[in-house]
Queue: 3 jobs
Job 1
Amino acid sequence: MKFKIAVAKGDGVGPEVVDGALIVLDRVSNVFGHEFEYTQVMVGGEAYDHCNDPLPAETIEKIQESQAVLFGAVGGDKWDHLPGDLRPEKAILGLRQALNVYSNIRPGILFPSFATASPLKQEIIKNGFDLCVVRELVGGIYFGEKGRDNKSGVEEAFDVERYNENEIERIARSAFQLAMKRRMKLTSVDKANVLESSKLWRQVVDRVGKDYPMVELSHLYIDNAAMQLIKDPNQFDVILTSNIFGDILSDEISMLTGSIGLLPSASIGEGTMGLYEPIHGSAPDIQGKNIANPVGAILSAAMMLEHSFNLKKEAEAIRFGVNKVFELGYGTSDIKIDGIKILGTKEMADLIAKNIC
Ligand code: NAD
């Protein structure tokens, strides 16, 4: 089968880790007989340097002609002085909005062979953990009314957290559907003891939950959820939460897995189009050294095969390849484990590709 993929490598280590993912996709294409057609598109700082726009219209056009987007990362010191609308990070928010991908799925997996890289106590996580955050992506406080005034003579600033029931319902359905494919357990995280928007959130999630009686639904306040994740991440399967709470919790989870370089993400909406990217940024401190961990990008490619192209077997083969390489004792330099055999970015991607069969 033939699939069209827009490839947005971006800045910093973005091109290095995406190249790693392409090595693995090429191997999948050989082993399973699919054809992946790649269209390179410019985003972020690179796009700004070429055409004064971090998300040029041509990029959006090419992406809309594709079936999925594989994204690296954007940003860097070079562009930090630019005003908000021209900053490289604008490309991510702009793309999420252009594609209307409102559901951000972030698996948090601690591979058992990396248990000692986690800061958690070994008795808690010696067998690893496997959970998944479903974060609302295009609403809430990041997109609400914001401003400043000093009417009272004192400088004030505000950001409004506002959700309507339709926005909550669609993200809740996305999370329940995911829970149905996993261990049938969903924890909705809010701050309903204080925030009006969270009270509506809880009400709607309860209502949607009635359509998924097989899924065990529970609610946690965000402060407790942050604590419980450290106490015992294995108690969670799918975590459903708002844009801001999801942003914070998924970074906390990335620390528990040993390295931010390992984690993938998918941003999806109603159809099969999706935006797939590792959760890390452009890591300018390690750019061009062939030491960035490509596994987050490679596992993002696996999520793309599964969700956008319905290639479940092929996605599983990538995850198997990653696991195998870890079991053989290989890793990249960001994984702090005694005795690990360190590989460079390209070498890690090559070895994972070799283990896909
Ligand atoms: P970062 O994720 O780029 O880096 C944080 C730390 O993790 C650094 O020490 C880095 O070396 C390390 N790291 C990140 N990815 C790694 C990988 N694959 N392998 C090994 N180590 C890795 O976050 P930051 O330093 O806060 O941001 C750097 C730039 O990235 C900023 O310009 C920021 O705006 C941008 N950013 C972009 C995205 C995105 O494109 N989605 C997300 C976050 C930050």
Job 2
Amino acid sequence: MSSKKILVTGGAGYIGSHTAVELVRAGYEPVLLDNFSNSERFIVARVRKITGRNIRLHTADCSVPAAVDKVFKKEGRFHGIIHFAALKAVEESVAQPLRYYRNNLGGLLTMLEAVARYQVPHFVFSSSCTVYGEPDKLPVREDAPVKNTSSPYGETKKIAERILETFLQSGVPFKAVSLRYFNPIGAHPSALIGELPLGTPKNLVPFVAQTAAGIRKILQVYGDDYGTPDGTCIRDYIHVIDLAAAHVRALGYLEKKRGPFYDVFNIGTGSGQSVLGIVRTFEKVTGVKVPYRIAPRRAGDIAAIYAAAGKAKKVLGWSAKLSLEDALRSSWEWQKGLCPSRGRTRRSA
Ligand code: WQD
């Protein structure tokens, strides 16, 4: 097996599972760690099927030091860690801030303690464009001021980046990057893995797909009175395959660096699309109507954000390759495979 073993925390999750597939393609050996609090076990079998590898899984909570120690004692040396595991429901975090701080920051601290104890040289952190809050300028650059975010979830990402940066400044010989994701959408072309929202989807594209599948009656468009061309919010929607590939590029970049080293990258397409634009494009690529109504604005939403994507292109040699149409088409293919007859949004085991 390759000596470049990578621990993927949250590896059974939406972005983690797609990244595990890309890691194998790039010659790495992913090892998954997941507590299945917001993911399904059948996804691990799917990742094994797509890659043709019997990828190892550890069922554990990465915010529990003893559990993480057990994994490292079993697995031995890791070439790197990609840390996805975190709670990420923005609205839920407003209602349960302490749970979010405990889980998201506890998980990061435990993983960094493991980095120090087991000398893991490379660390990629799953961060978010939410750290920018409402940017003053668009497209938003990495050196834009990090502002008060609209939720405890966003605060955990902001604080986590500071923990990472100051950890690396303490003189440890490790190397790390934070990747600030914009809006991940889409699914693997095999339609074997994709986004699996728990219960009613909070995010736009899964809700659109479930409405098209008849699982949801109608899409609520949260506000059409924003200062944007069609009045609906603008976001930078990035295909999850492109996003996964960015993690592989980030590892390659870190391998060439001497520690201690830390940097931050926007991972977005560099262009924005409105909510109604997403609906129109989805209908165009699938031929399926998506009924919607204009509803009141959603608390915490910002009018527009999309990435300045030049730094990742110049430094990582990475840019988004797949189109919005590719992403929405793959979301629909994935949704159709999810027991549409029984109107279930998640396949059972
Ligand atoms: C997009 C737009 C909604 C649902 C997400 C994640 C966050 C971060 C960034 C990773 C908004 C509108 C939505 C619906 C709607 N990612 N919408 N009807 O809020 O940009 O944040 O991506 O860290 O964690 O939550 O994404 O998909 O929820 O919303 O009108 O039923 O779609 O108002 O304008 P958001 P989203």
Job 3
Amino acid sequence: MAKSKKSTKAKSKAPAKKPVRKVVKLAAKSTSKNTIKSAGKAASKSAKSAKPAKSAKKANGNGAYPKPVAKPFGEAGKALEGVRILDFTHVQSGPTCTQLLAWFGADVIKVERPGVGDITRGQLVDVKGADSLYFTMLNHNKRSITIDSKHPQGKRVLDELIKKCDVLVENFAPGALDRMGLTWDYIHKVNPRMIVASVKGFGPGPYEDCKVYENVAQCTGGSASTTGFRDGLPLVTGAQIGDSGTGLHLALGIVTALFQRNRTGRGQRVLCAMQDGVLNLCRVKLRDQQRLKAGPLTEYSQYGEGIPFGDATPRAGNDSGGGQPGRILKCKGWEDDPNAYIYFITQAPVWQAICDVIGEPGWKTDPDFATPKARLPRLNQIFERIEEWTKTKTKFEAMDILNQYDIPCGPILSMKELAEDESLRKTGTVVEVDHPTRGKYLTVGNPIKLSDSITEVKRSPLLGEHTDEILTDVLGFKAKDVAEIKNSGALSAPQKEEKAA
Ligand code: CAO
């Protein structure tokens, strides 16, 4: 804020510059190691000084914390080390969740149908004979075991897994887990400490039995009705807020249930409905729904355009969802490059700097433009004028200039630009992984950085790659039992039809 005040004092022609902050390349300067080190120091400091008072201990019921380990940050094991996950997930929502848990150090055992596996292994295939990117990018750091969960010997293996795991995660269609005989009552009886976490399309109610995919959730969770332009169709977004968004919610639910289990000693069910997850992410649109009662939504473009509001939150194009008006504006080259645009926010504290940058110093004092309230009915005019300026700069030039004055903005980065961004590579947000059948590919690494639990992104497992080691090392089956289970056909693809033909 203090910095912004400085820039607002700038004289009309050339606003006072402060040292350039190259935000796009900023992350390149601070390597992940540096970030981790400093976060680590801060954490270690607070850990040393954090001696909770006796009453505080009682209040939150955590009991005594162990003495801080002496090992350097990042070398004391991973956050979820010791937690074992029975991963019954498929497609995107569930795998997003269990991948995160695996990155935090949980041993994630993915149970897949023999011969087929997670259906995404074979969807959108780009390298013949190799697991698809759809699969590999959602199943890092996991182990794979193939089990026919409806075969009696498969049930035998699953029972042992239930005893040995802490969490069962699934996103089958409603009722599928029960049809396998794995009801909550059954699981809870076999292992009372087991947490059973599920993604479903809907929570209890009229649609609870429906199968749901990403875009259905975006439509039923309020995202589609509020995305797009007022006079156009409802739109779905490219961000997978229904699938990956719900997976994120579920991961938090699981970690929270694990934390509570430390106190209660028992597991519980965790349910995330995709509709609920999307609605949670659309919270501000429900806010606006209620604000409609108090009058028009003045920060929406349609207010300035004199178009009356209906009885539901309208689509607002690229208007900013907050109290600071923003738009996507053309930059130099927009005629040929579909991503030559910048998001520009006319944040009130930097209004004077904006006026100077775009060459409209008179707007700083003009009563029609000087205050946020006065500007609201004139947003189209204002953004058209700003766009005249942004069209003279590339999106990166505009970003560099605007950042000197703390004017919030962001270039529209293409997937190509993100894939090639050096700073994202350095922080481990974009990672190159090697895979035995498909070779090298790029993936998104763990977006959540912990200073004491460093993520190493390991390739996804081949179908059934770890079946033997899980049967023997995790479940302790003797060679005789392994042979019996394998010979029963419970772990392999059925071949009867081929023989008959
Ligand atoms: N052994 C034996 N059978 C197995 C098995 C295994 N290892 N793994 C799965 N199956 C069976 C299931 O038991 C089920 O059989 P029944 O219906 O006969 O009991 C069958 O495979 C199909 O499971 P499904 O209904 O979950 O899969 P689907 O392809 O028909 O539906 C989806 C997919 C995603 C629509 C559905 O699972 C769903 O609605 N899930 C909840 C919401 C969700 O997560 N959606 C997001 C998916 S990501 O876009």
